[in-house]
Amino acid sequence: MALMVRRLVQLYAGLALYGLGIALQVASGLGNDPWDVFHQGLSRRFGLSIGAWIIIAGALVMLLWIPLRQKPGLGTISNVVLVGAFADLFLFLLPDPDATAVRWAFLISAILIGGFATGLYIGAGFGAGPRDGLMTGLAARGHSIRVVRTGIEFTVFATGWLLGGTAGIGTLLYAVAIGPLAHVFIPRLRVAPAGEALPQPRPVPSPACRPAGGADQGSAASVVSTERKSSGSTSVSPS
User: Cys-Cys link to 41, which of 4, 13, 165, 188 (CB 3.0-4.6 A)?
Assistant: First the structure.
């Protein structure tokens, strides 16, 4: 019971912090991560909030799980509903960062919080986020995780940029930093069932060999393997 309570607390803390990270990066105005370039572009072109588009896009991506025979977990459903809601909440609460130094502080905090939140969410072991469930589902059919992830994120980034989403130095910094941060936090925050050893971190490949906007392939493979053993589902990152 205590372990389950800890996992639930960790799951929802991770989702809340992930929403905070999104809000900080969007508020910085220095460039969003690829998916939030897409969400912001949709918001600017068609109305509704960024958080609302995060929810809508997550739900639509989940529909693509059906032909891939992916099974959502509690974390998947919670991700779809709550990350966008928390992002909108924190965007409403955060002050407007006028000074350049404050904008950079927002951006750096966003990336660090995003990496930590990824570790919390994945470590709770309640299933993949909708976007990464799509990635792992495609990868399970013989495609490279690296190629699939890069292709998906390049597509949403380019579409979001054409729709008016904000891209910039923050987009690049997020792409370079989130893999190493996830590599550090995921194994340290994973809640292992009784009697199961925690996975040991693997060496992190150079940024040039890492897929943009997510955990590196070694970390992804490790998490997918351990999550299949513990809960029958896969998870790579909170989105």
Answer: 165
